[in-house]
User: Fold this.
Amino acid sequence: MTTETTKQAEATAVEVFSNTDPLHLIDVDYVRLYVGNAKQSAFYYAYAFGFQVSQIDDLTTGNRMEASYLLTQGNIRLMLTTGLSADHPAQRHVNMFGDGVKDIAFTVFDAEKAYKRALDNGAVSAYEPYTVGDENGKVTRAGIKTYGEVIHTFVSRTGCFGLPELKQGGIVFPGFEMLEHPLNQFNLDNPCGLKFLDHCVGNVALGGMDKAVEWYENVLEFSMFKHFDDDDISTEYSALMSKVMSSGGGLIKFPINEPAEGKRKSQIQEYLDWHSDTPGVQHMAFRTDDAIHSIGELRRRGVNFLRLPDTYYELVWDRVGDIEEEKKLIQELGILVDRDDQGYLLQLFTRPVQDRPTLFFEIICRRGSQSFGKGNFKALFEALELEQERRGNF
Ligand SMILES: [Fe+2]
Assistant:
């Protein structure tokens, strides 16, 4: 086949695919956080987590409503947005919840078709489709509501705003401009190695988990992620239940937690208490290929990780067996390890990244394992209970 016919075949394949499956998710386009002060948050995420502060849309670029900073690392795109007036939705969001995740956006072939299909599947609109751009390229966006006040935006891109262009450093949306930031060179010289969003966890109220699970099943046509520990994980210590939803193409997983009765207050209930009794994103997990490097670098930068009791390492190797990494380094860095029938994983959780005990992050490195570290739950929840006690929320 000539190059031309190959291209045509590809184009036709894309066309057919997009026509037959409008909800095929190509990528996580961006994750938007509403924050109280985007300029300062950009500095925090750049310094603490090694993001490039790449692009800006604010008063200086002609946006009189809000200020947004695009931060990038690997294939992760964080959009930090602050409202510039009291009645901007971001300001209300920050009043209610503190800083937190508003929008997990997906790149699709055709945002309008994806949106229509989602509405047909029972979704409630967050906002109607609209297109911006010119003859050089266009972006179409439309949004639907998921749990709490979180939304999913569908994004389709053409021309200079295409996804490949974006990944190469192209402008994310019309109106944005490239930004020189004092930390960008430092971060290029000292990479943290975060690659992409592995999963994004939602906390919902008691009785809300199955509803949220059904929503992902029906609206976005996700399926329940089956793995060896997919039973409810309610234990004396955990006092939560969780089910994991997976996108069709396996792009991303959405575990959903709800509180359960335990001896003491569930960590999910603590989140809800400080989140205006409203479901929301509890944590996002960033994937790395090298946990020792990434967590070492993040610790060096002052990221505040949960500390597990030293007794954790007296037992963990019996449970996990041999791993590629040097065990002494794993223990020094306080990294958690778990194994399932497919392999093992390394993971670690930050403390909340704002003063409310709400959003935090996870760093995860998978060596075959596709699960979520069930074996660490007991040790982890004991550590979390200590934290809750320190905050007077037990
Ligand atoms: Fe996680």
Summary: The chain is about 30% helix and 30% strand. Residues 194-390 form a domain with the 2,3-Dihydroxybiphenyl 1,2-Dioxygenase; domain 1 fold (CATH 3.10.180.10). Residues 1-9 have pLDDT under 50 and may be disordered. The longest helix spans residues 3-20.
